[in-house]
Fold this sequence. Notes:
The structure is a homodimer. Chain A is of the alpha/beta class. The first copy, chain A, folds into two domains: 12-180, Rossmann fold, CATH 3.40.50.10440; 182-320, Hypothetical Protein Tm841, Chain: A,domain 3 (2-Layer Sandwich), CATH 3.30.1180. Chain A contains eight helices and 14 strands. In chain A, helix 4 packs across helix 8. The first copy, chain A, is globular, with a radius of gyration of 19 Å. Chain A starts with 10 loop residues before the first helix and ends with a strand. The model of chain A has no long low-confidence stretch (mean pLDDT 97). At the A-B interface, helix 1, helix 6, helix 7, strand 11 and strand 14 of A face helix 1, helix 6, helix 7, strand 11 and strand 14 of B.
Amino acid sequence: MKKLMNRVDDMLAESLRGFGAAHRELVEVSTEPKLVMRRKRKADGRVALISGGGSGHEPMHAGFVGHGMLDAACPGEVFTSPTPDQMLAAAEAVDAGGGVLWIVKNYSGDVMNFEMAGEMYSGRSATVLTNDDVAVESSLHSQGRRGVAATVVVEKIVGAAAERGDDLAACQALGQKVNAASGSMGVALTSCTVPAAGRPTFDIGDDELELGVGIHGEPGRRRVAMMAADAIAGELVETICESVAPKRGQPVLLLVNGMGATPLLELYLLFDAAVRQCDQRGLKVVRSLVGNFCTSLDMAGASITLTRLDEEMTGLWDAPVHTAALRWGA
Amino acid sequence: MKKLMNRVDDMLAESLRGFGAAHRELVEVSTEPKLVMRRKRKADGRVALISGGGSGHEPMHAGFVGHGMLDAACPGEVFTSPTPDQMLAAAEAVDAGGGVLWIVKNYSGDVMNFEMAGEMYSGRSATVLTNDDVAVESSLHSQGRRGVAATVVVEKIVGAAAERGDDLAACQALGQKVNAASGSMGVALTSCTVPAAGRPTFDIGDDELELGVGIHGEPGRRRVAMMAADAIAGELVETICESVAPKRGQPVLLLVNGMGATPLLELYLLFDAAVRQCDQRGLKVVRSLVGNFCTSLDMAGASITLTRLDEEMTGLWDAPVHTAALRWGA
C-alpha cells in the first residue's frame, strides 16, 4: 500500500486538519465534545442540515458544509459510521431553533447511529434516508438499496430550501422527493485500499470491470470483461431508467461522479457517452455536474446519477452555494 | 490498460465534447478553422489570455477558460503540443483589440509552436513562459526548468489583471513576476499510462517513490523508498524554498495539486504536512488551493507549489473567477 500519509492511525485527523485549514472561512473543525465539521455561521432560525458517514468518500460530506448546503458533517473513521454522540454534538452546535434534518445514506451502521442520535437529541429532528443505488437490492452493509451519489443532489437542493426558510417538515418531504426522483449506479476498474487493511478490498483482473460496485468496494451486479465507455453508459443509464422511470421529454440532472482515482479526461468522456444515452431516451439533460463528489478512497471508476427535475428542484439546484466542493451563484 | 473510453483515437474529441456540454455557459468548443476551447464572451478591448499544451493535464487549460482567467485554450493530443495554426485560430477568435498574451509552459514543442504562432499572428502579442519546476534543470522535453502547476497561479492572477483592464505589457510583466515568485515540485507513486501507448510510461515498485517527477512522467531527481507525507512535504518545501528564497514572515500561496489519481483525503493530508513545513520556516500561508489542477492522466502523486505573494498579487488572486475548475467571488 502506497498512500500520502504518515501513520495510519493519524491519517483522518491530519487530513481533516488540512481541510479545516484550507477552508477556514467556511468550516470549523470542532473536536469538543466530539469531532464535528461545522459551518462557520449558524442558520439563524432556519432548519439545520446535518449529514455524516464513514470517511473515504471525500469531498462528501465535509466538502458540502457551507452556505446553501450542510450546517455540519460528522466524519467517522474510514468506511465506519460516526458515533451517535458525534451526531448529537453536531445537532447541539448548529440547531438555531428551526430543528435538525439528518441526511443519512442507507447503511445499517449509519441508520442505527443516526436513529440513536435522534432519540438522544432533545430538540426537534427529522430524517431523510438516501437509497439511490439501483445496482443491488441489498448489500454487505445495507438492508435495501445503498445511498450513494444522489446524496449530493439531496444535500444541495434541500440545503437551498433550508436557506430560504422552509420548515423542517417541508425540508424532509423535499429530501424524500429528490431521493425518490434519483437513481445511481457505478463501476469499478480497480479496488480501493482501506488504510487500516493495507491491501485492496477486492481482486480485479487487468481486463475486468465490476458493474454496480458500491462505494465501499461492495460487490455489484456482476463481474464482466472491460467494456467501452458507451456500453458502460448504456447499461448504467438503462438500469437507472428502469428504476427512475422518466418519461420522454423529462428534464433531468446528470451527475457523472468519479470514484477517486479517475482523471477528469475520462469523467468528461463518460459524461459525453451518458448524454448520448439520455438523448436516445428522449431525456433532456438540463443540469449537470462532473467531478469527484462521492468517492471510494483510491478506487478507479465512476458512477452515473440521474434525477428527474421539476421547476422547484431546478430553481433550488441553481440557488447560490458556497462550500469547499460546490460553489456557484452570489 | 483500463480506461473509461471507446476508441483511443476518439478519446480526446469525446472528452472535449463532454466538457463543452457540461460547461456550455462558459466555454465554446470551436472546431473551425481549428480546435479551440474559447470563452463565450469576448474581452471587449481587454488583453486576451491564451494558453494551451498537450492534453492529459485536465482541468488545465480548458477548465480555466472563463471570466477572470483565460480567453482560450488550445488542447493538443495527449502530451503533445497543439499546433501553431490552433494558436493562431485562438488569437483571431478572442483578440478584442487589447492584444494577445500567450501563457506557455516551458516544453520545447510548446515553446516552438507558440513562437511560430506569434510570428504568424498579425495582431500584437506577447509571451509569458512558466518554468516553476525546481526538481531538475533540464529534462526530456525541456531546455531549462519545466512549467508545471504554478501555471495555474499565473493564469489566475494575470487573468484578473486583464479583466480589470491592464495593458499587454503590464500583463506580461505581471505574469513573469508571478512565475519568478513561484516554485513547484512533485512526486509520483504510480506511473501514468498514455492511451496511445497502452502501457505505463515508467515502471515503479510497490514501495518506491519518484521524487521530482514531471507531469508527463519524466524522471525526477531520484527514485527512493516510499516516504511518509511529512518527509515528502519537507523535501519538497525545502527544495522549493532554495529556489524561491522567501524570507521569514513572507506571505505565500500554498497549492497542493493532485496528479490525477490521488484522492482528496490524501491531498488534504499533504496540505496539512506542507503547512507545518511552511510554519517551521516562518512562512505565512495566507492563501491556499487543494485539488486536481495540473494533472498527469491517471498518475497517483501530488505536487506542492509556493508563490511569494505581495499585496497586488493577493488582491488579484482574490478577484472573482468563473471557470469550470476555479470559481469564486461575484
